[in-house]
Amino acid sequence: MTTQLDLEELKLNIDDMFLVINGIIVSFMQVGFACLEAGCVQPKNVTNILMKNILDLFICAISYWLVGYGLAYGGGGCLYYGKEFFAGVGMPSSQNGVWFFQYVFAATAATIISGAVAERCNFIAYIFYSVIVSGVTYPIASHWTWSPDGWLLKIGYSDFSGAGTVHLLAGTCSFVAALFIGPRNGRFSTIAPNEYNGHSMPLVATGTLLLISGFLSFNGASLGHITKPGDGVIVANSVANTIFGGSGAAVVILIMAKAGLVGESRWPFAMTINAVLNGMVSVCGGVNQYTHFSAVMVGMIGCIIYLVLQWVVPRLKVDDPLETTAVHFGGGLWGVIATPLFVEGGFWNNPDSMPLLKSNLIGAGSIIVWSVVNSAILFGFLRVFDLLRVSKEKEIIGLDMSLHKEQAYPVTNIFIENGHKNSNKTTVIRHAYDNVAMQHTLQQ
What integer pLDDT is reported at residue 186 of this predicted model? Predict the structure, then answer.
């Protein structure tokens, strides 16, 4: 009897460490997002975007502890939200490992939005949306899909590692946020200079590699345990399929670019990394069950969807600097739909595919509606009270100095083209700051 109890205790400890260690690895995706977003913005906004990505871990921890985890997994028998464990009250200490792993998922969902509103979002608005998304919007959706009491789970919805629950939700919120906040100054002007291409490809590359590594734990550890028979096989298959999803997308984007079908470059860098990330997002729904060939196919189709949205969103005059909508909304929606089409022999060989497709379509629609309503209320409120966006002057000067008074790079002058492609005139903004006010002088 003692030996059996010791064995069960050992299994629990191993499962907890599995979640904790992988949760720590997933948390390094924040480093990836920080580097990726910092490299994609202008030098004058790098401090701002880095601060947001750092604080995501800590602000989201408080909101998820106070409210989020209880809404997601608090029990109580409700189909739509949990009713227990708010602020940790009544939560068994044995659930701390689960809490930690689920918390980093909530932080990931919140941090995705920062890329869509980069370079013009007010800092107080960032705090608001981080708290609400990680404390309310995401937890309720995760209750629907992953809690034993959740209504989507009960009707057969299947989403192994968050194609819908994390990525579709965050991508939808990102689009609404970008729509409400409006484009960056001059972004869609026909005479504006091409000043929104980022500034550091090494940072972008480093961030992408960190995201890829974090993604492996994100998908692999979503099983939630490692001590049951067959767990190792499922985790290994999930990790391998995550790579294969990105591989499928990489093949498609390189072929299409080389053939001159997309973009101006024949070997595009930024477009390739976003396509790869989209491919990895696309396999999240059934990453534990796909064959490797199926994962490659899902990633390939995901890349096509990414390219379509990457072309459509700017033509709607929606400014999404990190292409968050194309990567996460496109990949997440396709990931939910692809699951019944490609798992267990494929749509043509699996009689359960049609019911699962119906359940997943209901789930995807519900998550989109939930995200749109929440985001419209949240960002609409911030916009009405003039809390959402910084002033035009602050945006031109840069958020690093206008909000933080801390430059990411040791420069004394910021040169801004006057907006005319053929003009040699340059406006020089020289900064002189004290504890109260900021002054600048314009010279030709």
Answer: 86
Helices (H), 138-269: 138-146, 151-154, 169-181, 201-220, 231-258
Cα separation, 428 vs 407, in Å, equals 17
- pTM assigned to the model: 0.91
Return the closest-CA partner of residue 21 out of 172, 226, 328.
226
Q: How far apart are CA 226 and CA 12, in angstroms?
A: 10
Inter-residue contact 279 to 299 (CB < 8 Å): yes
Task: Give the Cα separation of 114 and 34 in Å (integer).
Answer: 10
Length of the chain: 444
Name all contacts of 306-310 with Cβ < 8 Å and 24+ positions apart: 306/249, 306/274, 306/275, 306/278, 306/330, 306/331, 307/253, 307/256, 307/262, 307/275, 310/271, 310/274
How many angstroms separate the CA atoms of 81 and 62, rounded? 19
Is residue 55 within 8 Å of residue 137, measured between CB atoms? no
Taking CA atoms, 63 is separated from 125, 135, 138, 143, 414, in Å, by: 15, 5, 11, 16, 37
Query: What distance lies between CA 76 and its chain's CA centroid?
Result: 30
Percent of the chain with pLDDT over 70: 91
Residues linked to residue 432 through DSSP beta bridges, in sequence order: 439
DSSP tag of 263:
S
* pLDDT at residue 264 tops 50: yes
Q: Is 366 exposed, middle or buried (0-12, 13-18, 19+ CB in 10 A)?
A: middle
Q: 145: helix, coil or strand?
A: helix
Up-side HSE of residue 140: CA atoms within 13 Å toward CB? 14
Could you tell me the two tokens for 380? 């609409």
